[in-house]
Amino acid sequence: MVNVLGISAYFHDSSAALVKDGVVVAAADEERFTRVKHDNAFPINAINYCLKEGGVTAEQIDYVAFYEKPFIKFERVLNQFLQSFPSGGYTFYKAMPPWLTQKLRIRQTLRKKLGFRGRTLFLEHHMAHAASSYLASPFDESAILTIDGVGEITTAACGYAKGNDITLTRRLEFPHSLGLLYSTITAYLGFKVNNDEYKVMGLAPYGKPTYYDKLRKTLAIGEDGSVHLDMRYFVYTKELSMAGKKLFEELGPPRKREEPVEQMHKDIAASVQKITEEVIIKMARSVYEETKSKNLCVAGGVALNSVANGKILRSTPFENIFIQPSAGDSGTSLGAALYAYNTILKNPRKYVQTHAYLGPGYSRDQIKKYLDENKIVYSEFRDERELLQKVSKLIWENNVIGWFQGRMEWGPRALGARSILSNPCNPEMKDILNLKVKHREAFRPFAPAVCVDDADEYFECDVPVQAPTDYMLMVYPIREEKRALLPAVTHVDGSGRLQTVRREQNPLYYDLIKEFGKLSGVPVLVNTSFNIRGEPIVCEPRHAYRCMMGTGIDFLVMDKFLIARSANPKDMWDSEKVAGD
Fold first, then answer.
1. Is the C or the N end of the chain the one with fewer CB within 10 Å?
2. Cα–Cα distance measured from residue 454 to residue 464, given in angstroms and rounded to the nearest whole number
3. What angle do CA 123, 125, 131 make, to 5 degrees?
4. pLDDT value, residue 473
5. Which residue, 268, 354, 304, is CA-closest to 12?
6. 176 catalytic residue (yes or no)
7. Can you give the residue ranges of every domain in the chain?
8. What count of other Cβ atoms lies within 10 Å of the Cβ of residue 569?
């Protein structure tokens, strides 16, 4: 038995994953435990969870695999400073303390916090991305494409994998980066970098790419998808900001965070989205010509751009695509652990990712204890079918449901374990959820969840059995004749960010969707993450209860317990009397 612990830390979305004898048994983001969104701290809570779930101690860990090579990254940071001196002095000054106290002291931290004195393996960042997709995929061979902001130096890479071996044959290097271009426009539009890029994607369909020509002045795009940024438009190599004055001269003054979103902002979002899709398709076509593989594995933060993902198969010769649910930096802990086990140690591949439920779960007894200790009023259902009939009826009557079941999802998307569910047929539901529950921007779309056997009837999807649709990583057009039936999940351009649900993955969730279909005639649910704006997805029962009591969620379903917000005291959700707080 070989135990490998994968770790991602100190940039954003710290995480841990445990591979036991070649199988991923647990994986989680640190933010789910600390409640600090995109927490970049050493993931001690996620590590402790993984060890507990896997039934091993720190002493039984054979290898720790870290998701990047810190000294190579540090060298790049030093070079940035030297090349921009003296203008980059303040940025360098702000960046140094974490490097000297944390980022270059990984082995010491492992000894101090875990008592681990075994071998620590440091992987190249984009190799960890590549491994997170390919080594978790069902493919024996595949083309590889990784795209993000920046790793150590690499910002995008392509290559080929076969058996246990992965080769990255071509790389794009800092400062030239599709991810950093997208992040620059994210900041320009008044959103947070490394947090709100998905808002730009959601805003894009409301605009037209009228700023495409202006943005194209900022970069050259090769036929192979390589990008070369004109650094006169960008300042991220020397300042703590992204866009330079020359970009403002081209586009106009940036939007401040709380200013209204105007049509020009929507058009700029549409323009950068168009460029992103153009680059990704060219990259994918190029790596196909290089490898001639029918399979493609994609990873990196840009792989969370589900709109672009939905166009890859239709725009390239690839027949199959795999993107694992935590495609961004948090997923590199899983990739690092699998690469160590399969590629470095040369063990046979045993793992194929068929679901995303790798996080903490809570038993019926644990949930009941929490409810009873806090004197929370609830109904308990012994019969599963009776529960499903009750909940589907509540959804059909336009109640908003907090759905807390089993082990939580790995990755940024709620996939039916920690979800908010509602009626897709109600044209007012999108506004109800955005304003009363999620407390977020009105333009933000909601995802449709549909059983895999019904997907083709409602969506113009390539192959509904493809795994990325299970993880809400593909946007497809909703069939025109079905759009009027699904106003709450039909985006302004007629598309939806599809989640397909398989009964073998999540039988209770699957059966609930089918039960709702019997009532409504439409076997689809609105599915959004169980959290409010600015907070991570709920992890524990107390997080779920607090979220319900502080929002417009009407009912909470935890295991077989149904809790009505109206039946419980309004002051309980923020009271110190709540157990565990």
1. N
2. 9
3. 75
4. 94
5. 304
6. no
7. 3-136+328-344, 173-322, 364-574
8. 12
